[in-house]
Design brief:
globular, 3-stranded antiparallel beta sheet, 131 residues
């Protein structure tokens, strides 16, 4: 697999389209950090790290609106790819949907959102947009 983050986002996107309640993805440290951010920002209902086998998996419970049956995540968009890396400084931080969405960055201080990176005045690689 050449791009595990794109695979992670595609599995989430496909589970949302199929209206699944739970999706399982292969685990890695970067995927675990992205999952924690999605949980903290309220885009997913819950998550669980399962350490079975050599790699382990992440079980993610997706969040749906009970009345309208609409998912909390509207769009998952991969920005930086293995063929074209996208880096930004803290002054050029992207605004996703005029601040309503989040951009997830990989920085020297770890994986964080665009707002956290701007507060710490550090830039990094833009992994994805979520709104």
């Amino acid at each position: 697999m050449t791009d595990p983050i794109a695979d992670y986002l595609t599995r989430l996107r496909n589970a949302i389209k199929a209206r699944h309640r739970v999706v399982e993805v292969p685990a890695s440290n970067l995927k675990k950090e992205i999952t924690k951010i999605l949980f903290e920002k309220g885009y997913i209902l819950n998550f669980k790290f399962v350490d079975e086998g050599p790699q382990g998996t992440i079980k993610i419970a997706l969040k749906y609106d009970p009345i309208n049956k609409v998912n909390a995540i509207n769009t998952l968009k991969r920005i930086s790819t293995p063929g074209l890396r996208r880096y930004v400084g803290y002054k050029d931080m992207p605004r996703v949907l005029n601040g309503l969405g989040i951009a997830i960055l990989s920085t020297s201080k770890g994986v964080m959102t665009d707002k956290e990176a701007a507060q710490l005045k550090i830039g990094g690689e833009v992994l994805c947009y979520i709104y």
